[in-house]
Amino acid sequence: MKIPTKLKAGCNVAVCTFSSPVPLSFEKRFNECIKILTSKGLNVDVDENVLSDVAISKQCIANSLNKYLCDDKYDAVIPPWGGDFALEVLPLLDWDMISKSNPKWVFGFSDISTLTTAITSRLGWYTIHSANLMQIAGNEDCNYVKSMFDLLFNAAEGYSFEQKSSSYHEFDYPDYKIKPLSSYSLDTLSELIIINNHEEASIKGSLIGGCIDTLQLTMGSEFLSLENKDDSKDIIVYLENAELSPTQYKRALLSLKIKGFFSKCCCILVGRNKFEYSNNSLGSEEVILNEVFADLSIPVFGNLDIGHVSPNFTLVNGATAQVNFVKNKIILNQELV
Fold it and tell me: How would you classify the pairing of strands 235-240 and 168-170?
């Protein structure tokens, strides 16, 4: 695995669209998030297509990504948030030229993971699944956001950090248009879902994962493969759902299962599911996870801090992770090796 250069004051970072641009009605929020980066001494170049009320063509997005990922002036290439169709950008990237460039930090969740998993799988760069850039303003004191910035500014071989699953989460999204400095409202109790494990446990493996909406589609393609992994069951997969209905979600999990995505897994981590709150179907998540995973005989933990129901763990694709289940909490340790 290749560790991107740790950030420091004076480093250059680029902010560009990976999928969907930021509407002008969110410009105040966007500017507050850029201020967080500049307050840390970073020189921030904002791509001309980031703020827009119209969709950006896939070729324009790819051109910007090729430009910044191949330019070793930059140590990080940061999307504002996710979107819908990063899938159509993947084939337009100059993977050969990017592979010859210095590794760069990329972080975020949702459609961003379409690209981060491809970068880790194809190029061997560490990438980060975490809060999006558009979430960091007002949340600088969140332990998970602190973990992300600590990682970015201290990354080196042997660097490690620990996180514990949150006791509370956010029921709904804040309105950044009305309150540009909104922070998380962790107002809802989190209850861990446990499948195939009823004892305190410790599991170690290599971490990989992202948004199941697109991972179900890229798995087995040139953009996401576990073929380069050895034959031991040493992979910890994490997943989160953006927009799939309960039926679509179960189908996606089953699709990954029959494709062998879980065959080398020693543990599966699943984020809180938005449909649990949007259609009053509380409890369906546990039923689905049990129906899909009960026969795998590996621990599966659900309702975790991953994805569209905040807050978000900072998860490093490619890192060596240790999952400890202690007193109904997940304690997650990660190390860059």
Answer: unpaired
**CA-only gyration radius of the chain, Å:** 19
Beta strands 74-78; 12-15: pairing state: parallel
Q: Which residues of the chain have pLDDT under 50?
A: 231, 280, 282
Residue 62 tokens read as 């790819």
User: What's the confidence (pLDDT) of residue 153?
Assistant: 98
What's the CA gap between 334 and 267, in Å, rounded? 14
Tokens of 290: 């049990």
> Distance between CA 5 and CA 38 in Å, rounded?
18
How many helices, marked H, and strands, marked E, lie in the chain?
9, 15
CB 122 within 8 A of CB 222: yes
- 333 Cβ neighbours under 8 A, 6+ residues apart: 160, 161, 162, 321, 322, 324
Neighbouring-strand partners of residue 43: 12
Beta strand 315-317 pairing with 74-78? unpaired
CA distance linking residue 310 with residue 246, whole number of Å: 20
The pLDDT tens digits of the residues spanning 179-220 come to 998 999 899 999 999 999 767 778 999 999 999 999 999 998
For residue 282, the model assigns a pLDDT of 47
- Are 118 and 210 spatial neighbours (Cβ–Cβ below 8 Å)? no
Angle at 243 (CA atoms; ends 238, 247), nearest 5 degrees: 85
Report the 3 state secondary structure along 217-229.
HHECCCCECCCCC
**What distance in Å separates the CA atoms of residue 293 and residue 197, rounded to the nearest whole number?**
11
Q: What global pTM score does this model have?
A: 0.95
**14: three-class secondary structure by DSSP:** strand
